[in-house]
Amino acid sequence: MKLPRLTLPLLLLAAVLVLFGWMFSGRESHVGHVHGPGDDHAHAGPGRPIGKSITDTGFAWPSADDFHRTFTLRDYNTRVIFAGVSVLGAAGGLVGTFLLLRKRSLLSDTVSHCTMPGIALAFIVAEAAGLSGRSLPVLLTGAVVTGVLGMLAVAAIRARTRVKDDAALAIVLSVFFGVGIALMVIVQQLPSGNVAGLSHFIYGKAASMTGSDARFILYASLVVALVCGALFKELKLLCFDGDFARAQGWPVTALDLTLMGLVVAVTVIGLQAVGLLLVVALLIIPSAAARFWSHRLGVTLLVAALVGAGSGLVGVAVSALFPRLPAGAVIVLAATACFAFSFLFGAERGLLVRMLARRAITRRVRRQHLLRALYEHCEARGDSPRGLLNRAVNLGELQAANHWSSGYLASLVRLGLTEELLLPGSGDAGLRLSARGKIAARKATRNHRLWEIYLLQYADVAPRHIHHNADEIEHVVDATIVNELEELLAARHAGLGLAVPADPETPGNPTS
Amino acid sequence: MNWTSFDTWIVVTGALICMACVLPGAFLMLNRQSMLGDGISHAVLPGLAAAFLLTNSRDLLPMLAGAVVAGVLTAAITQAVQRYGQVEGGAALGVTFCSLFALGLILIRVAADRVDLDPDCVLYGSIEIAVLDVSAVPRVTLLSAGVLAVNLLLAAVFYKELRLSAFDPALATALGFNAGAIRLGLTVVASITTVLAFESVGSILVIAMLVVPPAAASLLTRRLHVLLGLSLLFAGLSAILGHVGAITLPPLIGGWFGMGNLGATSSAAMMAVTAGGFFLLSWMIAALVRRRERIQAGRRPGLPADLQTP
Questions:
Q1: Is A326's CB within 8 Å of B91's CB?
Q2: Which of A105, A466, A478, B18 shows a CA-CA span of 20 to 30 A to A276?
Q3: Neighboring chain A residues of B120 at a CB cutoff of 8 Å
């Protein structure tokens, strides 16, 4: 059994077991609200639906006791909510990564909107049947049913019409959400009346969940995360080469449906915590952030899970301390901050890393252009391959011979001086190579010519094209390839040694 | 059914707004930016909140300015994330609008003492309240007519450029039109339309109207001007039938299931649903037409063209 396949689920399991041990070690403590019983402003209700709080007083800074309570996780309930939302974030990160790799991130947006008619319909049906419309299993069942229906509708439109992917998503989203709102207005008119319980599903109420709600989120998210871990290999294959998977006999359609099912699951689980408008962020943002850190799927998944879990923790903590801030929105903004940081400083594809890499390549190309130009200039004026390259090179001649702009020439000279490839003091009077510069110039020219010879003799490139070809590739040829080229060519050009071979482009040279 | 002059105004306003949305929506659909409408509709929230916090008023102009800035910002940030972060387009849009929406919720929350902005209102809209106006012609109706007129004019003037940049941006650029600028202009027009429509009908109808009628029309024709005409027709009909449905269906259904006397539901939502009905209708017509063409051509359905006997 290979290590990478097991690492992820094992790590998750370990983390979860530690959390469980912690949670259940103090079960007898207060169960109820995030805030303790003596907490005066607790009834502001952290996750209360927005828009009904215009008369609330301003922004109260939490007391030291609040800080203490929240961060020492003294309340049993706080612990369950922290655990639930962070595992939910982790599950969102895992599923979202696979979704992102399938290039279907926005499907989660459509699915989350599609759950709305299900919730309203379940409420109406339950009320009509004489049950309580507020029962969570009933509402969530409705959400799952219409979520799956919406997903299938997207798949059908994509497969059977010429409507494009993005339009299919937008159509299903808006029509299902329209049905949802129409039903919601009807729900408001029912005798059992107000939709207060239902509006939690739109904006979420992470910090004021009851213990049982939070436990449901915890266990359901765990199941999702474990399914992701168990299907790691299959989903990986599906995401990177679906056609190959099909050809190998994997049940690709079933796997795709499983992935979509996981998306529906995360969406429905997250409804209560962050609300249907923002649950999509749990699926999109952590995975997008994780992509900046690695090209390896395992690492990406781990980072996405960590970002999701971390954002969940931050969101719950902040909204427990500042009851006026909606938890869902804080969770999303925490994830956004992670995304922005990864975007700039990500180790693999971050903006900074890629900019530095590009600058390094530009410098390398320029350095080699300068050195080879100087070498060839000296060579053309009679210095032997083993000669001293002591000539002072006239700037104007160099520029004319290489068709450089004066700006480019000036930048090359500046580069040569800072890297001490040119003797200090070389400037308008003439460029002189330093001792280091001479060695580097021989090497650069030698690589270029070795590559040209290779192209001519082994790759059947026409002589008039080799210079450009060599120019493009020579900057990225590394030392091992140069060594191999030397060995390859040694037989034909005995005694090449460390000398710079003659220019194969010059007529009359032995190699041309 | 008890039809009053309010109902007439709701239908007229709805039809005008729907038709105004269809025009930029059709080109967004052709540019494969359909979800942008959804993105903008979430992302204008911080724009509205910021405009309110800065000016302390709910006048149309600062609100509009804030929302348009937020809308254009959405498109711009999405582009930047996509290009500089090499993030897939859909995910880039998702990251952008989720973040902006969350920011908007928090801004509203923090400033809740002073702001009377209700996110519910932005989402659902209240066309029924908007037309309750003392003047002879409600203000929203005039506004909607204005938006429709401007969009029609823009579509007519820039028809050629829009068509070219939708179908072949590279050719458009080679011919000297700046396809990027045209797309940016389209985004701006879409944001302004979206924002103006919010005020009266809410985001859900806007998202639906930007995409659903053009998509329904695209199943029936491949010619752009026919597509635009059909979309306008579907949009207008959706508004009329949607409102009729909103006031007649709930009592009917309530009667069937014994849920008591239900009143009307949201007209904007039912207009969106009706547009979905038109999409299904077009889908069926397109499928029937295809089937008939196949039969007339003497081919057997289900076999690829090169195996058919003529």
A1: no
A2: B18
A3: 51
